[in-house]
Amino acid sequence: MTSTPPAPRLRATTRPLEQAPDLLALADPSAPLIWTRGDRGCVGIGEVLRLTFTGPRRFSDAAEAWRRIAAAATVDDPVGMPGSGLVALGSFAFADGSAAESVLIVPRVLVARHRGRAWITEVVETSGSGEVGAADEAAERAVLPGDVRVPTLAAETARSAVPAAAEPGEWQGAALRDRELDGGGDSVAAYLAGVREAGERIERGAFEKIVIARQLDGRLPGGSDLRVPLTRLAEHYLDCWTFAVDGLIGASPETLIRSTNGAVSARVLAGTRGRHPEDATRDARARDELLTSAKEQHEHAFAVQSVVTALSPHVRELRTSDEPFPLRLPNVWHLATDLGAALGERSSSIELVGALHPTAAVAGTPTAAAVAAIAELEPFDRGRYSGAVGWIDADGDGEWVIALRCAQLGEPDAETGARSIVASAGGGIVAGSDPTHELGETVSKFRPITEAFAA
């Protein structure tokens, strides 16, 4: 079931900015729309279009809907950079049968930066004649959440205009705890039982690898400024993309796909050890154990091969790192492999995401068998966790990461404004995996979110 109305006619106008703004400061405190890493990224303000998708065709339906929208759009973009012109930010659910919607959101205003350059894009919906409709004229005069006013780019002076940043809000934080299972029960015990059952099925030959996840949850007080956890993530996880799309907030280290001007790249992460930054000797030992572990190398090889197999029909000149390398993050060491290729047929970045998802890094090998078993062994719907989050432009180029180190916020309570928050983390189970060790790995992977949302 898919919500794909007739393609609206959008007009996107991009103009350069004289200075690169603080993107996080511009985000809506209660509903941020952000994609940032170091000196690159964008922030969306308001919405001019939202598309929702569900079911097994969510990626192909989204790709087709976006192709029609982009073809009907008028784009005035003298900047010509990745992320300029017409852009949508999106997030996709992990499972075909998930109750969570997958979304593409076109912000009313997008402020972006790429290293030393910055720009602002305004998007309005027009009639067939190109005139701005009455609803959009009203929206241009509207005050958006956070008292951020939409700029009008018609005037030459708008080249240096940036919406005013919302004032800093309050923050009380949320304590995340093991989520109570439906009908009660110990979620840690359920996770350990799931890992043991997965190991037994591997021994019986049902699959070679499976990723089993668990969840934490909590309540975030009403009025909390979500720029606080986003800033914490962006400042501590410099090698990750910090994101917020439709209540999904996180910092992912794993680039699922980046497609720009015919060049395609990806980063595969599989194999983990917790960091010990307080003890350099112990930390180095954890890194070396990861590099020399046959189990971790085996798991990593599965993940790389799944990406190579899925990507090969769509690209040319596919190449990978000679050997996995250790990626150091504040909370963990990962085994990492970078891939690069030239785009073959003209596939959009969403179509490439659909071809890759789910990778062995978040599902298992063989994929179909692992995904079916996940539905049995995990006592919850993953929602958008381990799905995809990122952006796409009018040419189909874009950048998408696997939604890891993240949490999903619920809708605010009508009376109190409080919101539910659910965080997820998992690890790859292969022959010989130890349930206690795997539990410890999830603790390390939860750290970015538990620390970001702490009081």
Biggest beta-sheet profile: 13 strands, mixed
- Give the domain tally: 2
Distance between the termini: 40 Å
β-sheet strand percentage: 25-35%
CATH topology of the largest domain: Anthranilate synthase
CATH superfamily of the largest domain: Anthranilate synthase
Q: Descriptors for this entry?
A:
2 domains; 27% helix; Anthranilate synthase; 13-stranded mixed sheet; 455 residues; alpha+beta; eleven-stranded antiparallel sheet
Describe the structure.
The chain is an alpha+beta fold and 455 residues long. It folds into 2 domains: 2-159, no CATH class; 177-452, Anthranilate synthase, CATH 3.60.120. It contains 10 helices and 26 strands. The chain has helices at residues 23-26, 58-72, 134-141, 187-203, 227-236, 280-292, 294-311, 349-356, 367-377, 435-452, and strands at residues 2-3, 9-16, 33-37, 40-45, 49-53, 74-76, 87-92, 102-106, 109-114, 117-126, 143-144, 148-149, 177-178, 209-220, 241-245, 248-252, 255-260, 263-274, 315-320, 325-328, 332-343, 364-365, 388-393, 398-402, 406-409, 419-429. The strands form 3 sheets. Strands 2, 3, 4, 6, 9, 10, 13, 14, 15, 16, 22, 25 and 26 form a 13-stranded mixed β-sheet that branches. Strands 1, 5, 7, 8, 17, 18, 19, 20, 21, 23 and 24 form an 11-stranded antiparallel β-sheet that branches. Strands 11-12 form a two-stranded antiparallel ribbon. Helix 2 packs antiparallel against helix 8 (349-356) and helix 5 (227-236) crosses helix 10.
